[in-house]
Amino acid sequence: MYLSIILLPLLGSIVSGFLGRKVGVTGSKIITCTCLIITSILISIAYYEVGISGSVVEIDLGSWIESELMQIKWEFYFDQLTVSLGLAVVYCSTLIHIYTIDYLSSDPHNQRFFSYLSAFTAGMLFLICGGNFFVMFVGWEAIGVVSYLLINYYFTRIQANKSAILAFTMNRGGDMLMSIGFFSIFSLLGTLNYSQVFSLIPYMNETAITIISLLLLGGALAKSANIPLHSWLPGSMEAPTPVSALLHAATLVTAGIYLLLRCSPILEYSSTALLIITIIGSSTAFFAATAGLLQNDLKRIIAFSTISQLGYMMMAIGLSQYNVALMHTVNHAFFKALLFLGAGAVIHAFADEQDVRKMGGLIKFLPFTYAVMLTGTLSLLATPYLTGFYSKDLILELAFGNYSFSGMYAYILGTITAGITAFYSFRLISLVFLTYPNAPKNYYLNTHESNIATILPLLILSLFSIFFGYIVSDIYVGVGSDFFANSLFTHPNNLTLIEAEFSLNPFIKLLPAIISFIGAFTAIFLYHVKPLAFINLFGCGPAAYPQELKFIKPIYTFFNSKYYFDVIYNHLLVNKGLKLGYKISKEIDRGAIELIGPYGLANNFYNTGINIAKLDTGIITTYSLYITIGLLSLLLLVFTPMLELALLPKVTDAMPAIADATNMFIEMRLFIVYLASTFFVLYNFNR
C-alpha cells in the first residue's frame, strides 16, 4: 500500500506521457485523475495508521550503492512528518488534476500536461518519503526537472523560456550548496541514513554542524524562494494556472521547508544557523509583502503572497517551532491552492485578462468564485477561527515569547507584514470584484461561472480553508501533544510554547489581527468606497500632482521593481558571468588550449623546422660563423665557473642566498657541458 502511494502517480504519468496517443485525451484525464484519487484514499489510510496510531513504516527495496564506507539503499520512510505533508501534497494535487480537466479542455497537448502534473506529484512524494538523503535527492532533482517542463509548457513563448531557465538555474545554485552539505555529512559521519546521522550529530563539533546547516539552508532557500534566491518564483507565473497552484501551494516551494524540518536534529545544535534562518525568514516575509503591494498582475500578487508565507514558515523553523512551521505549511497549501485556482477561474472566464486594473465589478458575474476567493483571502489573513489563524498568529506569538533579539525582530516584521498582506489581498478583491467595471463590455457579456469540474475543487478547498486548522490544531501544535514523536526534534532549551501560550499580554496576541483588519478596511476604503479620491491623491487622475507628495514616486518604483533584485542580479552576476564565459571561450578554449593542443603543437614544430632549415644557407662563411659562436659559447661555459670560484668565498660570507644560487647556476652549466661532451663523443664513435 505504501509503495503504491508513490508509484500510482508515476504510473499515471508514464501512461499519459508515453501512451498518450493510444489512450487519447479523455483516457489520459481519466487515468491520471483515477490514480490520484486512489492515492488520496491510500494517504488518508496511511495518515491514520502512521500519524494517529503512531505506527511508523520503513520499506527497504535493496542496495543501491556499495563502495567501502558508502552503503546506500533504496529505502522509504513513512513517519508523522511524511504523512502530514503528504496529505496536503496528494489532496491538493488531486483537486488540481480535476480542475485542469475543464481549465485546459481546449489545449491541444492535454496528455503531455497531465503527464507532467502526475510526474511532479510523484517526484514530490519520492522526496518526502525517501529514507535517506540520497533517495530524497532523487525526488529533489525530479521536481526540479519537471518544474522546468511545466513552467516552459508554452515553449513557443520567449518569456516562458526565460522564466523556466531562471527557475532551473537558480535552483541549480541551491542544489550545489545542498550537495556539498551532503558530501560534508558523509565525510564527517560516514553515512547518509537519517537515523544514523541524527543520532551522531550531538557528538559533533558545533562549527561543523553550523557549516552543514548553512549548506543545507542554501538548498532550502532556492527551492522555497527565500531571499536572496527568490527571483524565480514570480516569473514562474508564465505557466498555466494549475501549475502555479501546484508549484506554489503544496509541492515545489514546500520542498525546502521539508528539508529543514527533516534536518531539525541538525539545526537544533547550531544556534548560529537558527539565528540566520529566523532573520532570513522574517526579512523575506516583509520584502515579499511590500513588493506584492504594488503588483498589478493577478497571479503575481498571489505569488508574492506565497513568498511572504514561506518567510513565515522559515521564521518558525528559525525559532525551533518545527511543528508550527509544518502546520502552517499544510494550512497554506489549502488556502493558497484555493486562491490560485480561484484566480484561474477569473482569468479563464474573463477573456484571459490578468491585469487587475482592467477588471472590476465581477461580483455579479462570478458570485461563487468571489465567495471562494474571499474565503481563501480571509484564511490567508489569519482571520480568527479560519485555517490560517491557528498557525500564522501562533508563529508571531512564539516569536515574541522567545524573548530574544531575533524573536523580537521576527515579531515586529511579521506583524507589519500581516497588515501589508491584508492590504494587498483586499486590494485584489476590490479591484477584481467590487469596484467599478474597467474592462470592455464584451468581456462582461461573455463572463460566466465555470462548470462542475472547476467548481468542485474550489468548494472542497474552501471547506479545508475554513475547517482544517480547527480540526488538526490540537494534534499538531497543542500543548503536550506528542503527535510528531521522533520525526521532529526540538532541544529542551528551545521549548517556548508554554510562555507564548500563557504568559503573553493579550494585546501582543491581538496586535497582528488588529493590524490585519486595519489593512483590510483601508484597502476596501481606498479602492472601493473612495477610489477616485485615492486616484487623485497619487496623481493618476485629472487632479494636479501635489508637490508635497513627490517622494511617493521613487518609493512606488522601488517596491514595484521588487527592490531592484533583478537589476542587481543582471548587472553584477549575469552580465559578468556572460563576459567571463566569453573570455574563457575565446582566450582559454581557442587560445591556450589550441596553443598547447594537437593543432598548436603541430604548428609550432612545423614553424620551428622551417626556421632551423633557414640556417642551412650553403655559404661557407656562415658555417664558419656558427662554428666560432659555438666554440666561444663552449669556452664560456667551461671557464666562467673557474673564474667565479675565486670570488665565491667573499660573496658567501656577505650573502649566503646569492652563494646558493651561484652554486646551483654553476652546477647547471657543468651539466650542459657534460651533455655537449657526451653528444660529441657519441657522434664521433658512430662515425
From TrEMBL:
Membrane topology term: Multi-pass membrane protein
Q: So what does this thing catalyse?
A: a ubiquinone + NADH + 5 H(+)(in) = a ubiquinol + NAD(+) + 4 H(+)(out)
Give compartment(s): Mitochondrion inner membrane
Enumerate the UniProt keywords alphabetically: Electron transport, Membrane, Mitochondrion, Mitochondrion inner membrane, NAD, Respiratory chain, Translocase, Transmembrane, Transmembrane helix, Transport, Ubiquinone
Give this protein's Gene Ontology molecular function annotations: NADH dehydrogenase (ubiquinone) activity; NADH dehydrogenase activity; quinone binding
GO BP: ATP synthesis coupled electron transport; electron transport coupled proton transport
Its GO CC terms? mitochondrial inner membrane
Q: Which residues form the NADH-Ubiquinone oxidoreductase (complex I) chain 5 N-terminal domain?
A: 64-114
EC? 7.1.1.2
Q: Which Pfam families match?
A: NADH5_C, Proton_antipo_M, Proton_antipo_N
Q: InterPro entries under this entry?
A: NADH_DH_su5_C (IPR010934), NADHpl_OxRdtase_5_subgr (IPR018393), ND/Mrp_TM (IPR001750), NU5C-like (IPR003945), Proton_antipo_N (IPR001516)
Domain NADH:quinone oxidoreductase/Mrp antiporter transmembrane, by residue range, is: 132-414
Q: NADH dehydrogenase subunit 5 C-terminal domain: which residues?
A: 424-637
Listed transmembrane segments: 6-23, 30-48, 81-101, 113-128, 134-155, 176-194, 200-222, 243-261, 273-294, 301-321, 333-351, 363-388, 408-434, 455-479, 510-529, 623-648, 668-685
Primary residence: mitochondrion
Query: Which of the seven top EC classes does this enzyme belong to?
Result: translocase
The record's function comment reads:
Core subunit of the mitochondrial membrane respiratory chain NADH dehydrogenase (Complex I) which catalyzes electron transfer from NADH through the respiratory chain, using ubiquinone as an electron acceptor. Essential for the catalytic activity and assembly of complex I. Core subunit of the mitochondrial membrane respiratory chain NADH dehydrogenase (Complex I) that is believed to belong to the minimal assembly required for catalysis. Complex I functions in the transfer of electrons from NADH to the respiratory chain. The immediate electron acceptor for the enzyme is believed to be ubiquinone.
**Family to which this protein belongs:** Belongs to the complex I subunit 5 family.
UniProt-recorded name of the protein: NADH-ubiquinone oxidoreductase chain 5
